[in-house]
Amino acid sequence: MKDSATHLGKSVCFLWIALCLGCTGSTKPPIQSADPDPVNDTVPPQHSGELTAPSTNRPSQTGEIGTDRDSLQGIWVAMEGAKEGTTIPRPGQVLWILFEEDQIQMNIPDGQPVKANYALQLDHSPKQIELTNPDKTVAGIYTFDGDMLTVAFAAERPVDFEPSDKQGHFVGKFKRGTTALMDGSLPLALLPKAQANPQASPVGTVPVGENLTNDPSLEDAVLGEQFPPGWGKFNAVPKGTYRFEVVEGGRTGTKSCLIEGDGQYITVPTNRVPVASGKRYAARGWVKLEGSPVSAQVRILYFDASLRYIGENRQGHVTSHDQWQLVAITDRVEDYPNAQYLALAMSVMGKGKAVFDDLELLAFNTDNLPSNFEAQYGRTVSQQSRVLDRWLGQWESRTTYQPTEAYPRAGTTIGVTNAAKILDNRFVQLYRASEAVDKEALSLITYDEKAAAYRLWVFLSSGAAYEYTGQWDETTSTLTLQIVPPKPGVTGTSIARFSDADAVETNLIVKDPAGVVARDVTDVMIRKSKQASSDIPLAVEASGLSSEHQLLDQLLGNWTQTTTTHPAAWTPQKKESTGSHSCTRILNGRFVYQKNLEADGSTHLHFYTYDAERKQYRRRYFNSTGTTSEATGTWNSDAKTMTWQSNVGNGLTNTATSHFVDSDTIQWSAIVKDQSGKIFFHVDGKSTRAR
């Protein structure tokens, strides 16, 4: 068979078999459209329970068939074929064979699929295969080696696998579906949807310990080209601000990939691979940066059964320049239950150049993970984690306040700070009790992968709350944060420098809109212990609360909840779940603290308060995937409903409502829409007070 006959399957490939088995269909070759839709034209049926029942008169299987039968299971995609001596390369459609236990299905583009039982006979050379339904039996021969399968059928059983012009003769060479997808010989656009659900449609195993990335060192790529075979199209924001090119030179070999531009970011995905049950994945690669403030990441992208992007994780991140650096990340498949495919992706943020080489995507059996899996294969995750880990433990603090016009009282206070990781180790929580005017303070710090920045939230027992964002400088062991202006024109800088592993000094300067210093604070912390509690003391009493603030009391207590996630752009399938949450007052009663525990084990936090100056309710949200958000709320006393509004980004807004049916029941919902009204996310549920 000719090497040029690749990537295709044709309806005529199996018309003879279809006719012999009693299937109906036209013998006229289909007309190739200018823009074929092979995905929709070659969709195998959902075959669980849809195959014909095994025939009671099918041939017995002879020989030691266990190994062959097991190895054949799954989808095989035609790479080459010949019908009556004529090569049938016609691109645009896919011929596949699906083996499931003792039954077989074959797609017939523009015709009906073949459904039959099959039997193997290994005591012949070549090995024999027979297809049987209640009316017909078709004889053939086969051979396979690893991920390649060759079959031949004719009116009389063929004796070899050479093409023939005899009537009804067909010979085809097939590649295992998973391998065809991963090595790029099966284009994504022609992917049979039967591969979308590995549990409903076996596609073979995802190899463990092998690099699943096509052409990971780009040695087979063409200089000047954008994509090696099977890689996806890149996404640049804004469009046209980056270029991607295969160039000479690299960490190893003679080629690498260059990403250059001056936009916000670009993501370049490699080939998609199936998500297999019982597997964990690790992605890594080498990168060298040029320019500032450019930075780079590797990401793992997740796709649903229709190959629609549904999310990603992207902890790997580097900013240093002029040397090859390893960036690495481990998967979070458990956060994306609808994911059927994933892909390693390269990402560059900011202005400059990044050269990538020696990419690697590996699969591991979950029941046999390396003992140091996260540390070994997610090393760049720990770069940010190590920065956060610097704050862990119990600290003694000494805080000095310089007099300012806004705060004329100077002085020094002593306090104790307990810092521990929370929310699946995504955040460090710092709780401080001191003699200061704000006797309590609760802070959350994390590394925001999307923003490529550290973020800090501070909640004070006076009711004030502030947010900061900034960067870490490894050379000076310094975290520099800028305040997110609580009012227009307000500026502030916090500089925390570690003089050693157990001592950190922080200087905070806040200026009013006129540029006058309003806050001048120096804080020195000395670590006393590496162990600390994450418990937050409850408010013993909450005196002096306004009536608006007291309205939040109806949230207090322990609750159970039922949740329904409705089909929408982000969540195409309906999902129902249960969970529980508790609400308590903390920080002198100025905040209501809600902690949710979902049935899947995930947790998330809410901080509620009333901002008297803005005359609005405020809610801040944090979850164990690293997501954060802020919403403002209004209360409708007649409807007994709180309505929350938040900006999700990218032109999307979230509207959430909580209707207090009675003192023990809350009905709530949240809908994310764009400006046209398209719904991206829709969830609702009911919370019932636990007795």
Task: Compose a concise summary of this entry.
The chain is mainly beta.
Can you describe this structure?
- Strand 37 (641-649) and strand 38 (652-662) form a beta hairpin.
- The chain starts with 14 loop residues before the first helix and ends with a strand.
- The protein is built from seven helices and 40 strands.
- The model is unreliable at 1-65 and 187-204 (pLDDT under 50).
- The protein is mainly β and 691 residues long.
- Strands 21-22-23-24-25-26-27-28-29-30 form a ten-stranded antiparallel beta barrel.
- What kind of sheet is the major sheet? 10 strands, antiparallel, barrel
Q: Strand order, main sheet: write it out.
A: 21-22-23-24-25-26-27-28-29-30
Distance linking N and C termini: 74 Å
* H/I helix tally: 7
Assess the beta-strand content as a share of residues.
over 45%
How large, in whole angstroms, is the Cα Rg?
A: 31 Å
Structural class: mainly beta
Shape: elongated
Mean pLDDT: 80
Query: How many strands in all?
Result: 40
Unreliable stretches, pLDDT < 50, 5 or more residues?
1-65, 187-204
Percentage of residues assigned to helices: under 10%
